[in-house]
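Following up on my earlier message about adenosine-5'-diphosphate. Here are the inputs again, as you asked, copied directly from the submission form:
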Amino acid sequence: MKRIAIFPGSFDPFTKGHEDIVRRAIPLFDELYIAIGINSSKNYYYTTNSRLAQIKSIFKDEPAVKVEAYDGLTVNLCKEKKARYLLRGIRNVMDFEFERAIGQMNSDLAGIESVFLITDQKYSAISGTIVREINRNGGDISQFVTNMEELIITL
Ligand code: ADP
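Thanks, got it. Here's what our run produced:
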């Protein structure tokens, strides 16, 4: 049976921390879906299409990595893709506590195994919130984000 995993997130934007998690997970799975969660009640800083384009261009040479946007429950996407694994990154104890609760619920709901990779130290301070704040205030985010030129800010 193929080992199929989903890496869900808002990825607003997809940072070098996310990229590192995906690159380290590639050898673990046959297929890896990076899934941009779209919640209609939430406002995103970057457009969905530009986030899709940014992530696709980062992994254009990795045939096992696919990129999609989705709405609804992540476990439903897992069923659709026949994925038995969810990939998440852990930066600190706050991530851990949050992920533990979600991981246990996803296991109860659908028998999905969560696979956690600990962030590389050099990326552990990077968060989408801080990167957006730097960008909003005219700072340079290129050291935190690959292919940032693909990203388009939502009006
Ligand atoms: P969400 O809104 O689902 O938390 P994010 O886009 O913020 O979406 O994060 C998606 C996943 O990537 C989460 O598992 C998060 O812990 C992880 N992550 C976020 N930033 C980093 C980072 N700098 N290094 C490693 N993992 C990260």
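One observation from looking it over: The CA atoms of residues 17 and 123 lie 5 Å apart. Hope that helps, and feel free to reply on this thread.
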